[in-house]
Amino acid sequence: MMVRNNIKVDVKVKCIESRTTQKQDGVVNHTFVRVMEALGYDIELHYVKREDS
How far apart are CA 49 and CA 31, in angstroms? Predict the structure, then answer.
């Protein structure tokens, strides 16, 4: 798999942590993933909490 994160699970966890809900349809842009894969890249996301939150 090209995207190393399980983004749907990550979003769920972050929503639970912040006590919010969010619909998760189409979280990752599949065109972006295909382009990066064609270019030979893996995608790895890092989550950084904003200071103003």
Answer: 27
